[in-house]
Amino acid sequence: MSYFNKQYVVGFILTATIVVLSQHVYSQEQEQSNRSIEEMVAMIDRTVNPAYVYDYEQTKYVPPKGLTLLIMGQTTEAISAYLDQFPDQKKPSGWASYWGVSEFKGFIEPYKYSAGNTQHHQMIVDKFPNTIIQSAMWMLGKWDIAKNAGSGVYDNVIKQFSTWAKSANRPIYLRIGYEFDGPHNELEPDEFVKAYKHIVDLISVEGADNVAFVWHSYASKPYKNYPLSAWYPGDDYVDWVAISVFGHAYNGKDFGSDCDNVLNFAKQHKKPVMIAESSPINGIPKENTEVWDNWFANYFSFIYNKNIKAISFINENWPNMGIEGISEWKDSRLYNNVKVSEAWFKEINNDHYLKQSSKLFGELSFKPLQNAKEFINKAAKLEDKNVVIKKMNLPFYVYRDGENIHFFPSAYMGNHEGISVDLKSKKDVYSGTSSLKLSYNDYHQWYGLGLVTPPDDWGDIEGGYDLSGATQFSFWAKSNENKLSTKIGFGLIKKDKPFPDSVIEHKEINLTTKWKKYTIKLKNKDMTCIRSGLVIFSQANGKPHHIYIDDVVFE
Fold first, then answer.
1. Strands 545-554, 472-479: pairing kind
2. Cα(513)–Cα(508) distance, rounded to whole angstroms?
3. How far apart are CA 218 and CA 458, in angstroms?
4. What does the alpha-carbon distance between residue 473 and residue 452 come to, in Å, rounded to a whole number?
5. Between 20 and 30 A from 422 (CA), which of 23, 62, 144, 195?
């Protein structure tokens, strides 16, 4: 056979193969599109594994045998869109909302984050009687958030939450430092446990007995491979164990060894299990129902098989959330696909899943407070007392040994991919035990770093510190490169933003390889709102370098 004949035969075979495969794919899509909703729902395995049916101890607000709480979230916008798209469907038994341990925001009044999404706990109370609230408390290891929480820095915030919780007069499932073992949260077990126990103790002392405490694992490869037990605060401090389900459900009904580890831990400690966050992160496309086969059928089968007592589904368009590290997540809103949403409601409308109902609190053995009205008036005044721009005493340290961090290294500028920050460097220290080490790992271009509050904000959210009375700003600095041209100071957010720094002051410096103190005089400067406590700009001159900063203070 000639070369050309061989090529012809090979081409013919390839073409025929492509046609057959295309026909097969088309046939599968046609088969999916022709399926009834009943056939889709029939894919769910409702077998309950008796190994996961056990008696619970030291817990509260657990549904009776054979029932599961249904919760939806996670923003005000997502909740409103869900109700608009499905106005005739039964409402779930609960709704989810989020907040941060460092600030009492998003409770009485709506609070919009810089990405444009809003949190508003009181909206759930006012709009959805006879439902529960799943409240997620953000708490990280970095920036000393967890450490500060454990040492009482945010006690006033926790007390405000406790008063509001009593006024809500319904079960609140509080996820303290949710996904505590996720690498993205950088939580050291000892700091997390201390903070968790301190928060639980304070809420209990404040008398917010309607709060159930949820210990929420990421249920994936843990941070630094710490054992799960290292983060456990003890049976007296945990009412529920929770997991996240995102990519887990794409690989069948078994969600992996890390997830199994959490479930077995919950059984060992006789705690009910909640799926606290879940979403098909590869998206719900309009064109086909593959996501039902590949994610939802596995998800619901897991719920039955593992005897899950509460689930929370996040109906969200992930690309719009502005969350770092999830850029590849897709639009996972139910109403993208009519058949998927119909199958969803066909499943959740069965009696296994609890809905909004006047009987709900009784089913959860919750007794509403008789004196809740006295807390409602107190709660209404809370956010007025929550001063956003706090007046601070002098001297006020921006940085000293990496302790009690007031400003967060989250404002990256220029070639930010070349920047790395160590808040507790032991490499080269002026005084104490640590210094701030800023490393630039590229060979060209400029870069900048700002330590700001609130974190990850560029002037769209109110915040900062009132440092009125300060007469100078000083810091110690050096570099591993001699005569490194830098600009260091404070203030970053300009007047074109809704919430700017009240003053911006930077100093041009040629850093040397020896520690030196630098001072900026502040006479007649408006110090009433400093939200960028330290700002550093520099550039590479053909090789990487390090900058060391220590003892940064307003006085």
1. antiparallel
2. 16
3. 29
4. 16
5. 195
List, for residues 266-311, the tens digit of each pLDDT value. 999 999 999 999 999 999 999 899 999 999 999 999 999 999 999 9
Distance CA 217, CA 263 (A): 10
Other beta carbons within 10 Å of 27: 10
**479: helix, strand or coil:** strand
Tens of pLDDT, residues 469-519: 999 999 999 999 999 999 999 999 999 998 999 999 999 999 999 999 999
Q: Which residues pair with 214 in a beta bridge?
A: 175, 240
* Closest to 215 (Cα-Cα) out of 298, 271, 284: 271
426, exposed or middle or buried, with CB in 10 Å at 0-12, 13-18, 19+? Answer: exposed
Residue with tokens 């809103």: 333
How far is Cα 161 from Cα 108, in angstroms, rounded to an integer? 10
pTM: 0.75
- 363, 64 contact by CB (below 8 A): yes
Which three-class secondary structure state does DSSP give residue 507?
Answer: strand
Q: How many Å apart are CA 266 and CA 273, to the nearest integer?
A: 7
Measured between alpha carbons, how far is residue 409 from residues 398, 438, 441, 455, 487 in Å?
Answer: 11, 10, 17, 8, 16
pLDDT value for 34: 81
Q: What is the pLDDT of residue 107?
A: 93
Provide φ and ψ at 190, rounded to 5°: -65, -40
Q: What are phi and psi of 217, to 5 degrees?
A: -90, 150
Helices first, then strands: H and E counts in the chain: 14, 24
Alpha carbon distance 278, 444 (integer Å): 42
- Of 120, 147, 11, 130, which Cα lies nearest the Cα of 69? 130
Give every CB contact of residue 327 below 8 A, 6+ residues apart in sequence.
Answer: 319
Catalytic residue numbers? Answer: 179, 277
Ranges of H-type helices in 269-337:
290-291, 297-305
pLDDT tens-digit series, residues 223-274: 999 999 999 999 999 999 999 999 999 989 999 999 999 999 999 999 999 9
Quote the CA–CA distance of 301 and 543 in Å, as a whole number: 55
Specify the DSSP class assigned to residue 183: G
